[in-house]
From TrEMBL:
Protein name: Ribulokinase
Top-level taxon in the UniProt lineage: Bacteria
Xref: Pfam families: FGGY_C, FGGY_N
Catalytic activity line of the entry: D-ribulose + ATP = D-ribulose 5-phosphate + ADP + H(+); L-ribulose + ATP = L-ribulose 5-phosphate + ADP + H(+)
Lineage, opening ranks: Bacteria, Bacillati, Actinomycetota, Actinomycetes, Pseudonocardiales
Origin species: Saccharothrix ecbatanensis
């Protein structure tokens, strides 16, 4: 009997890459492996020790290739399968993560003359140092009434291609001049696999301001005369649609991965968007929240509408035939991790270790017994800025109500709740724009926390479904590989056969919904006070911090 055809999906996250081997006919996950990036996130210094300013976040592209060299063969070994049965490989990436490269794809940081220049490295999605450039783009676009601006909720993020590209030009013109292509990491890794540079339509639309074309040369020159050629000289490239074949696996990539040369390599994709089909969330009204270090909210709709503060809306941006919407929160799991690492007394760590728990599990247990509002706190979830709906990475975190009686579990729960309130603001923005959210589907590592999930159900007053896979993005990438290999006609068919979801796992509790409604009113008041111009203290503090550091 012939073996079942298989596909491999590789999810490139913030700190590591994960590979999964999947059976094509039913989506069964046969094996998986993770490889941590050797350099992690460079947010304090370059590998040589050169310090970085605040709000920077860089990476080393070789770390991504190491995932192919280590995680893919390990996943194949874990699955115990014959690599010859693999018919395709698909990948997804964090976005917007940008790589400055030469014409042959060589990253500039690998050139001796740029090894000590931070602008030659990958600018990770959470690099927020281009906020001044984003502010100028937004101001000019608003003044000129640029038609593409409403497609992004009225604001362009500092995380995206144009803001980061303008920062590169203005702060390191020598690096900008040496750069031949300004490439999304999602496309760069496909380039390494297939030997061909194909720009994927997803990141072009959501992160590259591509809406039936790019912003005009006239607009770019108005930002900076030397920026006028940015699209033509650095960015523009033929687009590949999601699920298309970018090319065949090269001999070199086959050697890295242990796979067969020539198998299908799918066009690149974004970790959040690729997860929606994996969770069978391909119909209007099903919002997927991919919850990890940050949260990305994606949803399909059959109408086009202007949603304030959304990250973008793209025709076919998630699945063909529907408008794909995106919003997000820049910090979620990152906030919880920061609190545990820097704000929890040693005795909690000792107690957790003695009981065989993580500190997160201990704080969750301790706070789960509280009544809603018992801790007397309200927090803003802006420790990494605000991606939606304010689109302002100069904003910062707040906890109101602390007293000498406040304990670690109180603040921890308040931070959990703050992220739920942030999602509620996003959900409300869609509902108010005439695009109702009927179901919240959760994917990502944070779904393992049942208290957090129940809080989200209660705060949003929505049923929470849970993806059936622990490897949602990698599974979604594998599904796109199956489409690229012609095993399915389109991603709708692949989602039906290979996707997995558990519906209505968490349901709103009416008493909790009522109690959280009162708390959410408090959150909204703080949200608007600090975020909509009534008090600019957060911006002033950021400016003073930079001045004090001599930047």
């Amino acid at each position: 009997m012939a073996s079942d055809p298989l596909v491999v999906g590789v999810d490139f996250g913030t700190l590591s890459g994960r590979a999964v081997v999947v059976r094509v006919r039913d989506g069964l996950e046969l094996g998986t492996a993770v490889h941590d990036y050797r350099h992690g996130v460079l947010d304090r210094a370059l590998p040589d020790g050169r310090p970085l300013p605040p709000d920077w976040a860089l990476q080393v592209p070789q770390d991504y290739v190491d995932v192919l060299r280590h995680a893919v063969p390990a996943a194949l070994a874990d699955a115990g399968v014959d690599p010859a049965d693999v018919i395709g490989i698909g990948t997804d990436f964090t976005a917007c993560t940008m790589v400055p490269v030469k014409a042959d794809g060589t990253p500039l940081n690998e050139l001796p003359e740029f090894a000590d220049n931070p602008h030659a490295y990958v600018k990770l999605w959470k690099h927020h140092a281009a906020q001044p450039q984003a502010d100028r783009i937004n101001h000019l676009a608003s003044l000129r009434g640029e038609s593409w601006l409403p497609r992004y909720g009225g604001l362009i993020s500092s995380e995206w291609e144009f803001a980061k590209g303008l920062q590169l030009l203005e702060e390191a013109p020598e690096v900008y001049a040496a750069m031949d292509h300004w490439v999304e990491a999602a496309d760069w890794i496909v380039w390494q696999l297939a030997g061909t540079y194909v720009r994927n339509a997803c990141t072009a639309g959501y992160k590259g301001i591509y809406q039936d074309g790019y912003p005009s040369t006239d607009f770019l020159q108005a930002l900076n005369p030397d920026f006028g050629g940015f699209v033509a000289d650095k960015l523009d490239h033929p687009l590949g649609q999601l699920g298309d074949r970018a090319g065949g696996l090269t001999e070199q990539a086959a050697e890295w991965t242990g796979l067969t040369p020539g198998i299908a390599v799918a066009v690149g994709n974004v970790d959040a968007h690729v997860t929606a089909p994996a969770a069978r969330a391909v119909e209007p009204g099903q919002m997927v929240a991919i919850m990890g270090t940050s949260t990305c909210h994606v949803m399909n709709a059959d109408i086009l509408a202007d949603v304030p503060g959304m990250c973008g809306v793209v025709d076919g941006g998630i699945v063909p035939g529907l408008w794909g919407y995106e919003s997000g929160q820049s910090g979620v799991g990152d906030i919880f991790a920061w609190f545990v690492e820097h704000n929890v007394p040693a005795e909690y760590h000792e107690q957790a270790k003695a009981r065989g728990l993580s500190v997160h599990e201990l704080l969750t247990e301790l706070s789960s017994h509280q009544r809603i509002g018992e801790h007397g706190l309200i927090a803003l979830d802006w420790h990494s800025g605000n991606r939606s709906v304010l689109v302002d990475h100069e904003l910062s975190g707040v906890v109101v109500g602390q007293t000498l009686a406040t304990r670690a579990e109180d603040t921890y729960r308040a931070l959990l709740e703050a992220t739920a309130y942030g999602t509620r603001v996003i959900v409300d923005s869609y509902t108010d724009a005439g695009i109702p959210v009927t179901e919240l589907v959760i994917a990502g590592g944070l779904l393992r926390n049942p208290l957090l999930m129940q809080i989200y159900a209660d705060v949003t007053n929505l049923p929470l479904s849970v993806i059936g896979s622990e490897q949602g993005p990698a599974l979604g990438s594998a599904m796109h590989a199956a489409v690229a290999a012609k095993a399915y006609d389109d991603i709708h068919a692949a989602a039906k056969a290979m996707g997995s979801v558990k519906r209505g796992v968490y349901l709103p509790i009416p008493d909790n919904v009522e109690a959280y409604e009162r708390m959410f009113v408090e959150y909204q008041e703080l949200h608007d006070y600090f975020g909509r111009g009534a008090n600019e203290v957060m911006h002033r503090l950021k400016a003073r911090r930079r001045a004090a550091k001599g930047e």
